[in-house]
């Protein structure tokens, strides 16, 4: 039960007495007086000093305040409020995937929970202090004493409150006099006017009225229509010149919004591995199959490579790659039309090499020329040399073109070197006979699904536990959002796309599909897919280092192998648990099958 507080005592003149105050000249006498007052049983006493005095709260017997418990309770309420709000908003009411995290992700909820904890604890501390101190108070009876102004200068005061159950005005004065109080006087009610000045009320009303104007303007704008443009307080923020990567802009002369990468530049640490490691492609074989592409990839990986903008020619390449490219170009130059090959891929210095095959042409081109019908010879000047055909059967325009175009003169080398190709062409329809036959090394893919890129078949990293662990970590961060933690293509993004019936969504691949195994889908190709992206999947070369991309490849292979592993491949220490789990699953399946059979039999009867 709470104690009833006695009414303040009164003096002869009728003023209310709120307590008795005494002055002390030094700290030691004040502390001694505080201890004596505490021992006398007073619980409502206070001291006023011009500077903090260590130990004065213990001397007065002041008990610890409940303010920390108020702050703790308010902070806990803030934490629960934040968690409840986020769970309801993001996990129940409006499910939305953010950065691939689950709908209810406690680690992701920590920032908001922390902020509301601090906010509620701050408000609880602030207003709790007001309540415990009896604030707000516009006046204090202590201010009625003109001597109390020295409390902030050089004098110490000890105050006994009249609300204390042991308070007696005469007894309090006698006690303070015995303790060495120099000047003792009662603290009476402040009799100054309590009426608030009218000018202050008018000022408060004007401030409140002006503060309502912005709210009224906003409310009016929300419910009315206007033909004038909206007023922009910060126009530079509302009309920011920021552009997307592929957007048209006037910032640059070529109309692009962003600058393309400078040819030949690489990021720091990008040259720690060779070109094969960075691309997943066997560059030596690619140079034999697609020389321009090989040259471009090599140039991109060289930090000191110089690209001439006039003709796009790459300079400063490694000699080994350049020799391979030149040899391959000399072998297939005769079979490529000059109009299809840009000047950037074939330097002008290599054109004289086209004269070398003419010596072989006169020796080897006789047999194919005799076996082909005359109709086919007259249809294409690229398949049969002009000097072996009669002038009457060759149109003048085609003969002029063959003479004026140096790049087409050695065109007979292709069919002359590969006789089976010429024999096969005799059985094709006439519509296809006019089409020049590409050499086997540069033959285009037979369909859009055929990939002739010489991908690396094996992972260049030494596979160990650390690499697999790193690959699992990177896979869970970047890949599991769509492909799922087990790689079966049912990640959170795909689940939401199916839930909202997204018409433009392309489901991610099931990594356990047989077409993605290593014997069909090489490691280098999987590395290239991670780097460059495919369909809805973006490329991750900018986010994931090459070494980590190879680690992801190794982890994907481990995932695939785990689906077809036999019990003998499991460590002996774990076989017993797996066998137990297998027996439990088998029993559950048998039980479910028996229930279905019983239900079917019951339905049939």
Short description:
With 605 residues, the chain is mainly α. Helices cover 46% and strands 4% of the residues.
Describe the overall structure.
By secondary structure, this protein is mainly alpha-helical. The protein folds into four domains: about 1-190, no CATH class; about 275-345, no CATH class; about 350-375 and about 390-440, no CATH class; about 465-565, Cytochrome c-like domain (Cytochrome Bc1 Complex, Chain D, domain 2). Helices cover about 45% and strands about 5% of the residues. It contains 23 helices and six strands. The strands form two sheets. A four-stranded antiparallel β-sheet has the order 2-3-1-4, covered by helices on one side. Helix 9 packs parallel to helix 11, helix 10 (about 290-300) packs antiparallel against helix 11 and helix 19 (about 465-485) crosses helix 22 (about 545-565). The two termini are about 75 Å apart. Mean pLDDT is about 75; it is low at about 1-5, about 305-320, about 335-435 and about 440-445.
Sequence-ordered SSE layout with sheet pairings:
Layout: E1 17-24, H1 27-39, E2 45-48, H2 56-60, H3 67-93, H4 106-132, E3 156-161, H5 169-178, E4 184-188, H6 198-223, H7 235-238, H8 275-279, H9 283-289, H10 291-300, E5 306-307, E6 314-315, H11 319-332, H12 357-364, H13 366-371, H14 374-379, H15 396-404, H16 413-417, H17 419-425, H18 430-433, H19 465-483, H20 492-499, H21 523-532, H22 546-563, H23 572-604
Antiparallel strand pairs: 1-3, 1-4, 2-3, 5-6
Helix pairs in contact: 3-4, 9-10, 9-11, 10-11, 19-22, 21-22
């Amino acid at each position: 039960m709470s104690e009833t507080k006695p009414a303040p005592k009164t003096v002869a003149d009728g003023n209310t007495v709120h307590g008795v105050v005494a002055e002390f000249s030094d700290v030691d006498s004040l502390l001694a007086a505080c201890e004596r007052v505490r021992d006398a049983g007073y619980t409502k006493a206070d001291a006023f000093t011009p500077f903090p005095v260590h130990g004065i709260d213990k001397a007065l017997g002041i008990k610890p305040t409940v303010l920390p418990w108020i702050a703790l309770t308010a902070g806990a309420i803030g934490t629960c409020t934040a968690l409840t709000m986020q769970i309801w908003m993001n996990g129940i009411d409006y499910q939305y995937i953010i950065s691939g995290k689950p709908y209810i992700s406690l680690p992701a909820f920590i920032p908001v929970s922390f902020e509301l904890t601090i906010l509620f604890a701050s408000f609880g501390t602030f207003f709790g202090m007001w309540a415990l101190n009896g604030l707000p108070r516009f006046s204090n009876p202590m201010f009625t004493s003109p001597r109390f102004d020295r409390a902030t200068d050089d004098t110490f005061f000890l105050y006994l409150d009249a609300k204390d159950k042991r308070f007696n005005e005469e007894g309090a004065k006698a006690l303070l006099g015995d303790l060495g109080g120099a000047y003792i006087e009662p603290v009476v009610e402040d009799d100054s006017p309590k009426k608030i000045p009218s000018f202050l009320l008018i000022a408060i009303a004007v401030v409140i009225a002006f503060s309502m104007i912005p709210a009224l303007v906003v409310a009016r704008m929300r419910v009315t229509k206007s033909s004038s443009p909206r007023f922009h307080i910060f126009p530079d923020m509302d009309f920011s010149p920021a552009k997307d990567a592929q957007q048209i802009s006037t910032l640059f002369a070529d109309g692009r919004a962003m600058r393309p990468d400078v040819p030949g530049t690489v990021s720091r640490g990008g040259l720690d591995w060779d070109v094969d490691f960075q691309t997943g492609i066997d560059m030596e074989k690619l140079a034999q199959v697609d020389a321009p592409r090989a040259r471009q990839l090599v140039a991109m990986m060289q930090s000191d490579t110089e690209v001439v903008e006039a003709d796009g020619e790459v300079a400063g390449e490694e000699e080994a790659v350049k020799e391979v490219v030149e040899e391959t170009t000399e072998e297939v130059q005769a079979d490529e039309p000059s109009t299809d090959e840009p000047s950037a891929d074939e330097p002008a210095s290599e054109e004289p090499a086209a004269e070398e095959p003419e010596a072989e042409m006169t020796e080897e081109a006789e047999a194919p020329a005799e076996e082909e019908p005359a109709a086919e010879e007259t249809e294409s000047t690229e398949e049969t040399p002009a000097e072996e055909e009669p002038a009457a059967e060759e149109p003048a325009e085609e003969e002029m073109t063959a003479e004026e175009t140096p790049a087409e003169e050695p065109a007979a080398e292709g069919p002359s070197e590969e006789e089976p190709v010429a024999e096969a062409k005799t059985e094709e329809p006439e519509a296809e006979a006019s089409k020049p036959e590409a050499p086997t090394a540069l033959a285009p893919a037979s369909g859009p699904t055929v990939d002739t890129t010489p991908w690396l078949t094996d992972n260049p990293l030494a596979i160990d536990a650390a690499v697999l662990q790193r690959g699992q970590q990177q896979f869970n961060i970047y890949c599991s959002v769509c492909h799922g933690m087990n790689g079966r293509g049912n990640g959170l993004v795909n689940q939401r796309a199916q839930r909202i019936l997204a018409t433009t969504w392309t489901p991610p691949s099931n990594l356990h599909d047989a077409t993605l195994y290593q014997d069909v889908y090489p490691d280098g190709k999987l590395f290239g897919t991670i780097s460059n992206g495919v369909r809805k999947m973006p490329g991750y070369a900018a986010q994931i280092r090459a070494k980590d991309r190879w680690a992801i490849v190794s982890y994907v292979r481990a995932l695939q192998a785990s689906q077809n592993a036999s019990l003998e491949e499991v460590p002996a220490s774990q076989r017993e648990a797996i066998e137990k789990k297998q027996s439990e699953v088998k029993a559950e399946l048998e039980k479910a099958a028996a229930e279905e059979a019983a239900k079917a039999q019951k339905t049939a009867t």
